[in-house]
């Protein structure tokens, strides 16, 4: 088996951290261990939502802090036109260049049990069983050539 198609994840994604400063949306969501966005159950009455992160179409949000606890990486890909907001603690990112890797393909990769096992392995470096961002970015992803 050749490993030359396996690339460092951080070379294909970039962090996105757009705050909801203009309160453009109040649609607050969380990410669950089944890897989809769900309406938040948090009581946000009186909470200033301007510090929350906006997630636009084809962007990802994940909770790096709960990898060891959930034994998977809670991550989701936003596919709707209308943006949502997530906790400021979430790590949000997007694909840098869709001619190199597609967001939908990357999400399929994230949904693999093998990916979750690898993510859990990397949590050993953190006393709280979270996945350190640098370790997440160093994870390997199989990147096949895109043919149109």
Question: What attributes does this structure have?
Answer:
4 helices, three-stranded antiparallel sheet, about 150 residues, 11 strands, Adenine-n6-DNA-methyltransferase TaqI, Chain A, domain 2, alpha+beta
- Strands of the biggest beta sheet: in what spatial order? 2-10-7-8
Total number of domains: 1
Query: Helix segment count?
Result: 4
**Major beta sheet, specifics?**
4 strands, antiparallel
Uncertain regions spanning at least 5 consecutive residues = none
Average pLDDT over all residues = 90
- What's the CATH topology name? Adenine-n6-DNA-methyltransferase TaqI, Chain A, domain 2
Computed CA radius of gyration, to the nearest angstrom: 16 Å
Percent range of helical residues:
10-25%
Topology overview:
Blueprint: E1 6-8, E2 13-15, E3 18-19, E4 29-31, E5 37-39, E6 53-55, E7 59-62, H1 67-70, E8 75-77, E9 84-86, E10 91-95, H2 103-110, H3 113-122, H4 133-138, E11 140-142
Antiparallel strand pairs: 1-11, 2-10, 3-6, 4-5, 6-9, 7-8, 7-10
